[in-house]
Design brief:
alpha/beta, D-Maltodextrin-Binding Protein, domain 2, 10 strands, 42% helix, globular
Amino acid sequence: MFRRVAWLCAMLVILINLGPSMVSAQTETIEELYKKALKEDGVLNCYCSLAQVNAEIIYPLFEKRFPGIKINHVDATSDKLAARAITEARGGKTIADVIEFGLEDINKIFDQGLVLERVPPEAAAYPANLRGPYWTANNLIFFVGAWNTDKVKKDEEPKFLDDFGDPRWKGRLIAEPRDYEILIALTHKHGSLEKARAVLARIAANNVEFHKGHSQLAELLVAGQAAACFTCYSHHYPSRKRKGAPVDYMLTEGAAGIIGVAVLKNAPHPNTAWLFNRWAASEEGQKVYSQGGRTPAHPKVEPKENIRPKVIYAVGVEDLKQYSKFEKIWKEVFKLR
């Protein structure tokens, strides 16, 4: 009884400190929030790296779901959008309401003190490695192994990333030279950077041939110019398989790059920004992202294609803070400049 009373008192103190506006913001429904958003300018400024082929499906469905609100999609790469938001803030203005791009670049904006340190209640459904104090994963990109089925026998198909360290792959592997995410994934898997480096060294001993661009890696496999690749994007393969290409890919485990969503502190349309953030994190919104061709981060929402590995090693904030270290080790092991 004493512990329960103490807990209730502690929760009361927290709620008092949050203030009435924050408490109501956490408990109000999306429909209530939508009514508030309609009192703003009817626009959401989205600095989002979402490809147009996906945006043309996803954003109109948000607008249909919330009539009276239009998305102003400012499209560019993550690094350029982050640089733009930071430059604008230094000039004394905030134009973006929400940002939706790579976690590494979201971190850059956060480090400048520009991101609202708050996540939607819908984020509670996500595993700890797919949410943080100021961001929620929105969609994921998976790095997996893939192979040419004419050159790889059924009984030698790799099941795990470590399998590419087997000597039978000597002279048969290709990879992207900048996919340090694989080293990060191996570190998570083995709980040790030293063990991960040892696995990578065994793979490197197989004389990996490097090519820039994941689309090129896929085409090289299709053409039979290599037997296997251990840094491929899983979403590149379902359509190629349907067309009869002799390729297959790993779904037992993979590294995951995170595309996240966050709200800027001084967003010109704060309620609209928060509405989008909550919708994008919800099962409803994630189903729309799936419909639009992205791989949803929500654990209960499946992508349109079978491209999500059973075990995911997500590249998180702490990993990104040490990115230069992983890059250095990767280049040392593979003797890359």
